[in-house]
Write a structure and sequence with these properties.
The chain is mostly beta strands and about 140 residues long. Helices cover about 15% and strands about 40% of the residues. The protein contains 1 helix and 8 strands. A 4-stranded antiparallel sheet has the order 1-2-7-4, with no helix packed on it. Strands 5-6-3-8 form a 4-stranded antiparallel sheet, with no helix packed on it. The longest helix has 19 residues.
């Protein structure tokens, strides 16, 4: 009887210790992807559909994507990607609720308006993550 009680006590002790230490399962991070955009230049005071190609070169799937405008000279007005939920603000184009598995490429269309003055070349920022907004790779 005492032996059975000792085993039960030990098992409960291990369970309580695990809970107390805050054990949570590990999540994998995205460490690599590649992207490109066309066109590479636009006229001042114009609205353009930019085509982004994002390729997942990581073994883990991508579930979250954020594209940031190059500067305040651009205003994002719309975006879309097949099979993903798209959200737009003047600064960002978000893609959520989709999966881009390793080796796959996703085309994202971002519509943006350029300001009325010509400016030097600038870069868009493309970020991706397996977990929305966590451990982001640019």
């Amino acid at each position: 009887m005492f032996k059975r009680f000792a085993h039960i006590t030990l098992a409960l002790s291990l369970i309580v210790s695990t809970i107390a230490l805050g054990w949570v399962p590990a999540k994998a991070d995205i460490s690599s992807c590649s992207s490109s955009v066309t066109p590479h230049s636009v006229e001042p005071d114009s609205t353009t559909d930019f085509s982004f190609q994002l390729t997942n070169t990581d073994p883990n799937p991508i579930h979250w994507i954020r594209i940031t405008r190059p500067s305040s000279n651009f205003t994002i007005t719309a975006n879309s990607a097949p099979g993903w939920q798209s959200t737009t603000s003047s600064r960002f184009a978000f893609q959520t609720n989709g999966t881009l598995n390793s080796g796959q490429t996703l085309t994202i269309t971002v519509t943006a308006s350029a300001g009325s003055t010509e400016i030097p070349s600038e870069n868009w920022k493309v970020e991706a993550s397996e977990d929305p907004g966590v451990n982001i790779v640019s």
